[in-house]
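Sorry to interrupt, but I need a hand with the structure work. Please put the record directly below this note.
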Amino acid sequence: MSQANPPMRTVLFDLDGTLADTAPDLAYALNCLLEEQGRAPLPYEQIRPVVSNGANAILRVGYDLPPESPEFALLRNRFLELYRAHVARETRLFPGMDDLLSYIEDAAMNWGVVTNKPAFLTDPIIAALGLAPRAVCVVSGDTTANKKPHPEPLLHACQLAGSASGQCLYIGDAERDITAGREAGMATLVALFGYLCADDHPESWGADDLVSDPLAIIAWLERHRAR
């Protein structure tokens, strides 16, 4: 007979705003683009909250253009070129994250990444941070047919990790992360240290808990890992 609550075996992370602090490089790329266009750079604090929402959201901070316009498409392509050239300039793991990864590994669990970021940007970041040999899987936004909030990328990560969805925890800083994790049948945590906007209400997303920093995730796992 199978267990109703199998032990936690795999921890999966969103990338931007959860595993790594990528906002400085994304802000740098946007400001490089603005300066190329003869515009003034924007304060980092204005760009940071929207970083988890992708390139279009970041560009809309700097440009009042509809995303379907030809001008927007050209700016988006140039922004991605600039970001790819500086993708690991200042990107770092959040403080305490390496301790969390070591805890997971020492506890004979595994961990991976599930992000909506395309692989041509995700893979260089994972490599630059020295995480490629440690991650059991890296699922990017173009790995599967669907992106989050669809559960498909998370279910694919389960297969790569060798775990059932009920043995997995997914951690993210956006509502789509929690939606995808819940629909995949995983436990979910909101990373409050990530890129939340002022009008976000993470307490209403239906996650199992909200955590203020990576070390709080260790405490959560200590309480819930055996379940």
